[in-house]
Amino acid sequence: MKEAVFVKRNAERWRSYEESSTDNPDVLTSRFVALTDDLSYARTFYPGSSVLKYLNGITAELHRKLYSNRKEDRGRIITFWKYELPYISFQARNQLLYAFLIFFVTILIGCVSAANDDTFVRLILGDGYVNQTLENIKNGDPLAIYKSSSSADMFLAITVNNIRVSFMAFVAGILFSAGTVFVLVQNGIMLGAFQYFFFERDLLLQSILKIWIHGTLEISAIVIASAAGLVMGNSLLFPGTFSRLESFKAGAKKGLKLAIGLVPVFITAGFLESFVTRLTLPVWGSVSIIMVSAIFIIWYFVIYPRRLYGQQTD
Q1: Could you tell me if 125 and 190 are in contact, meaning their C-beta atoms sit under 8 angstroms apart?
Q2: Can you tell me which residues the record assigns to a coiled coil (predicted)?
Q3: Would you say 231 and 92 are in contact if contact means Cβ atoms under 8 Å apart?
Q4: Which of 295, 135, 276 has its CA nearest to residue 209?
């Protein structure tokens, strides 16, 4: 994009930032995020230009006003969770959709494959898991595997493993998104085969009410981590007007922030799996946890980012 076109498209918005002064922290933060994006673009394509100096000036002034009345560290943390991560989620909305669709389709593939091949579940889940679960079903407790070790040991192991899987899904995006797609397909087929295994034994509802207590957050976070991998991978595939290196740097930075933002989600999922899933809860208790988890994911990563973006463009 030529510098004159860049200035023409954004000049009115920049001028409104200067003329309509405000002390509202929400408005200041949304303006600051928008300006830093513009400044980053100008640094890449118009180094040494007058528009770069101009953007440096108004961004610095906005930064001073935004952080003058609060501690930097605390403000940075609040800004990340309240604004930056949701903005990145909005920017990655297409990748989130693609990751969800790929995962959903591969779940169906896992179900259909398990329904048409008696050996498929064992191939995917392993003989040890299948045999143990069949024994548990015979003993009247199909999901006793979640009670097989102490809660504290399970929490640590599960949380570390979930974080490992999410970062694997993200890092695999460096293979031009193909690695991330592979991780999605692998996990989707596994989940489909797993759920069909219980469906075939008339235990689908019981498994859903038990497993999705933690699975709602855990599976959602894996999908979102995969979207982070697609953000990075697509920055290599489709650099647009940026050089491939600059595009990759920006995509990797956004994807990494999105993946890091999932760590508390995985910790919560690990806690639920270790301390709550093993309990015998009433149906309303299981449904409540599943619904609250689903509403949080949809609100924080889909609805709230759209509202923030609407505020920025008003």
Answers
A1: yes
A2: none
A3: yes
A4: 276
The residue among 23 and 57 whose pLDDT is bigger is 57
Q: What is the 3-state secondary structure (H, E, C) of 27-82?
A: HHHHHHHHHHHHHHHHHHHCCCCHHHHHHHHHHHHHHHHHHCCCCHHHHHHHHHHH
Cα separation of 150 and 141, whole Å? 17
Its sign, for the CA torsion 266, 104, 295, 198, is negative
How far is the first Cα of the chain from the last one, in angstroms, to the nearest whole number? 24
104 vs 5: which has the higher pLDDT: 104
Whole-number pLDDT of residue 75: 61
Q: Residue 293 is encoded by which pair of tokens?
A: 């988890």
Question: Do 233 and 177 contact (CB within 8 A), yes or no?
Answer: yes
* pLDDT score of 305 more than 60: yes
Give the Cα separation of 10 and 312 in Å (integer): 13
Count of CB atoms situated within 10 Å of the CB of 120: 19
Q: How far apart are CA 309 and CA 306, in angstroms?
A: 5
Q: What one-letter code names the amino acid at 309?
A: Y
Chain segment 139-166, per-residue pLDDT in tens: 888 888 877 677 777 888 888 888 888 8
* Residues 6+ away with beta carbon under 8 Å from 28: 22, 62, 65, 66
What mean pLDDT do residues 5-19 have?
85
Cα→Cα distances 32→95, 103, 113, 237, 306, Å: 25, 35, 50, 29, 17
User: What pLDDT score does 212 carry?
Assistant: 95
